[in-house]
Amino acid sequence: MDEKKAEELIRRLAAALRGTELYSATHPLVQRGVDSLTAAAHEGLQRTPTVIIGFLGDEVVVDGTRLPKSTASLIGFARDLRDRGIEKVTLNRGLSRAEVVGLIAAFSDRASPVPLADRLIARGVRNVTLGRIVVDEVSDDEAGIAAARRVYGTAVETAEMLWNAAQAGDLPDPGAARKIIDGLARLVTQDRTSLMALTALKKYDNYTFTHMVNVSALAMAQARALNIDGPLLREFGFAALMHDIGKVHTPLEVLNKPGKLSKDEFDVMKRHVVDGAHILRRTPEMPALAPIVAFEHHLKQDLSGYPENIGDRKLNLCTMIVSIADVFDALRSNRPYRQGLATVRIRSIMSEQDNPAFNQVLLKRFVNLMGLFPVGNLVRLNTGEIAVVTAEHPTDPFRPQVKIIMDTDGGMLEEPVLANTWERDGRGEHPHAVVEAVDPESTDIDPLTYL
Ligand SMILES: [Fe+2]
Ligand SMILES: [Fe+2]
User: Fold this and answer.
1) How many angstroms separate the alpha carbon of residue 369 from the centre of ligand 1?
2) Pairs from 378-381 (Cβ < 8 Å, separation ≥ 24)
3) Of 5, 12, 72, 267, which sees the most CB atoms within 10 A?
4) What is the residue-wise DSSP string for 230-250?
5) pLDDT value for 224
6) Residue 139 resides in a domain
7) Ligand 2 geometric centre to CA of 299 (Å)
8) One domain, residues 201 and 276
């Protein structure tokens, strides 16, 4: 989009929002504002499937182009959105006038305690998404968790692009997908600890895209532990990344429904495996494994699950690895209808006796790979202190090395204290023992800063 058109789009967006604060929704001025905003958005979306509007400081950036020094009213608009936690607004092709009405209405309702993104969904607005910007502030020579964070952040952003393209009916760009996979594959090989810690974060609000990246990372970690490397490792990563891409056709009411799905809704949901296989088969340069995994990932070892009536077949190794990563990440994430579960709970759910959902050998290996208390997890000790897991014990997964960061009274320690929970005192007892995992969300602590 050229600069003039971009500026015009933003001006109309700001004007439409201002209009609703002054007049009722039915007022002709508001209606006209909606019309002209819809027209500008449609024009912009003719050429690209998505238009991304970002707010950085006082500046507005449209599709990567910084708008020239803005007027006072635009600065006010950018600040207002930023104050409400919105750094990015993505418009997708297919945006309807009704959705623009919903967008404007959701924005102007300032009293609602419900997060804006959820109100958009509630109003049926599916072609506008809100988010935060992952800023590249880390230099290339930085190593460890900071570098991993950058790779991970870029991967999530790229996953969103792939998703939007597929949703608009365009083919996902395999070049962009390959970039994600290369970055993640490097991390899996060189810094698995940081990558696994990142997949354990729950603070990301964008489940769809973090899920894609997490499943890809968790699948590649498993594959790497099976000594799979090189191009095949990347194919596994690719297939895992795209396993749910068929959900671009699943209506949001079904996708985000808080309660249990009805029989009809579940039937609609089940289609994503076939839809995904179709999309991926059409995408050039997509490894042959990708449509197979999309098709198979809800089948269990005994071929129950879905799609139904597929005859006799042997599930692909990659499918079995992906379905473990898929269920693990889904249970661990915060969803609109429940909090993410702690690793220990997930383990017990997934390893229930004779669960046909997973290959038992692969599942055991996965559990060992992740450790009982993975590095980067927050844990509570028997002393009441809170600590971050910094290293796993080579043989006893219950007794990791930790850094104590919070004392018994909930005060943060100025100097975190390293403790080996496997060590015994003079009486042969463990002075520090891990009692349970703690959800970092409930504490305001970012455990990764302690690694
Ligand atoms: Fe799925
Ligand atoms: Fe999934």
Assistant:
1) 23
2) 378/437, 378/438, 378/439, 378/440, 378/443, 378/445, 378/447, 379/434, 379/435, 379/436, 379/437, 379/438, 380/434, 380/435, 380/436, 380/437, 380/438, 381/419, 381/421, 381/432, 381/433, 381/434, 381/435
3) 12
4) HHHHHHHHHHHHTTTGGGGGS
5) 92
6) no
7) 12
8) yes
Q: Distance from the CA of 101 to the center of ligand 1, in angstroms?
A: 32
Task: Indicate the number of domains in the chain.
Answer: 3
DSSP 8-state secondary structure symbol assigned to residue 52: E
Residues of the chain predicted below pLDDT 70: 57, 69-73, 132-144, 202-205, 336-337, 344, 353, 372, 394-397, 441
Return the ligand number nearest the Cα of 330: 2
Q: For position 403, what pLDDT does the model report?
A: 95
CATH number at residue 272: 1.10.3210.10
Same domain, 348 and 245: yes
Q: What is the pLDDT of residue 205?
A: 64
Ligand nearest the Cα atom of residue 215? 2
What range defines the domain where residue 65 resides?
3-131
Gap from CA of 272 to ligand 1 centroid (Å): 7
Which ligand has the nearest atom to the CA of 213? Answer: 2
Q: Cα(377) to centroid of ligand 2, in Å? A: 23
Model pLDDT for residues 2-16, shown as the tens digit of each residue: 888 888 888 888 888
User: What is the pLDDT at residue 138?
Assistant: 36
398 and 355 share a domain? Answer: no
CA of 270 to the centre of ligand 2 (A): 12
CA of 237 to the centre of ligand 2 (A): 14
Q: How far is CA 40 from CA 10, 72, 105, in A?
A: 9, 22, 18
- Ligand 1 centroid to Cα of residue 442, in Å, is 28
Amino acid making up residue 198: L
Asked if residues 155 and 218 have their Cβ atoms less than 8 Å apart, the reply is no
Give me ligand 2 centre to Cα 324, in Å: 10
Whole-angstrom Cα distance, residue 162 to residue 129? 14
The bound ligand whose nearest atom lies closest to the alpha carbon of 273 is 1
* pTM strictly above 0.90: no
Residues in the chain: 451
